[in-house]
Design brief:
- With 387 residues, the chain is α/β, with parallel strands linked by helices.
- It folds into two domains: 131 residues, Aspartate Aminotransferase, domain 1, CATH 3.90.1150; 237 residues, Type I PLP-dependent aspartate aminotransferase-like (Major domain) (Aspartate Aminotransferase, domain 2).
- The chain has twelve helices and twelve strands.
- The radius of gyration is 21 Å and the shape is globular.
- The two termini are 37 Å apart.
- The protein binds 4'-deoxy-4'-aminopyridoxal-5'-phosphate (PMP) and glutamic acid (GLU).
Amino acid sequence: MAESETLMMAKKARALKAQGVEVIALSLGEPDFDTPDYIKEAAKQALDQGYTKYTPVEGLLELREAICHKLLRDNQLEYNVNEIIVSNGAKQCIANVCLSLLNPTDEVIIFTPYWVSYFHIVEFAGAKPIKLYAGIDQDFKVKPEQLEAAITENTKLIIYSSPSNPTGSVYSKEELSALAEVITHHEGLYVMADEIYEYINFNETPPSIATFAGMKERTITVNGMSKGFSMTGWRLGYMAAPKWIVDACSKVQGQFTSGANAFGQKAAVTALMQDPSLQSYMKDKYLERKKLVKPLLETIDGIRTNDPEGAFYFFPDVSSFFGKSNGKNTIKNADDFVEIMLTEAHVALVSGSAFGDANCFRLSYATSNDLLIEAITRMKSVLDTYN
Ligand code: PMP
Ligand code: GLU
């Protein structure tokens, strides 16, 4: 199995920092906010109350009830507690689903650019990942006719994230409806909708794909605490799906890791039962940063960006730099671009090749305005030396 490229770049940036190099790390997709105090307090209380033991594999009943409440409140989705499973991060939900659902001849259509781990998890599960590419000219969003053309009799699962990591694109209600229309015409086809950036959406939040006619029985909705509540280190994710899929995931998880951590689950109950507007200061800050970063990136000749509607990433196209040299180094592809940014500008990014698009790089803007300005200024001055 390949190493996660996002985590690898984060490791490289940390190693350079440890050598005293002033690296600005825009590589890891991780909120820079601390977990809100009211959530931390709930975890401390839970520890004192003795939530220090194994929990049911599928998660505390109280948390699964809170998740059902959240899904109804925010997504108009009605689920029973036995259609919910809590895992050690959304990442584990994705792995559980792939390991339980996929067989060797199955094809999985992954909307590309994709979040790095989808591809590797599908391969690890023994199925065949099929990249369905949508470039910057279509805001990185797959069109229904493209999806229709990619489906074969072996297609079992479709995976996408919206808001998207790495592009920040968001599928609108109309776009989701058109995709759902295609999907419901094929028997035995499932969708894993990764909604982990749900709360980091700069416009009105579109409905979940599971709300469209005929979709609920075919949809696995993945979400988690990492992004919306800034709880990456707590390792708490969850999914809602038909009971038979949840039961299969529960078996896999029961053998691999058991239930997620007990006191964290109690804190997640508190978080999910609150009005989501309590966290909207984070989204406001991301939007402010997006508005700062876009024009700054556009001051660099040859960089093309879309206008992300959610998450906290830019995924600029830098193909116009390919072939350019400073007399010493040549930028042949996105991997070189990112390497040169790290070694010459001391800015850590992730190559688009990790996400299935070798023309682009990913920049996470979940950091301070000052660091963002400094990073892009450094990038520009290095790129000015390449002709
Ligand atoms: N899906 C997407 C699109 C992500 O960006 C991430 C963040 N790593 C995950 C899933 C996994 O999140 P978690 O921290 O809950 O495992
Ligand atoms: N979602 C983050 C990213 O894409 C976390 C890193 C990871 O889990 O791979 O950078």
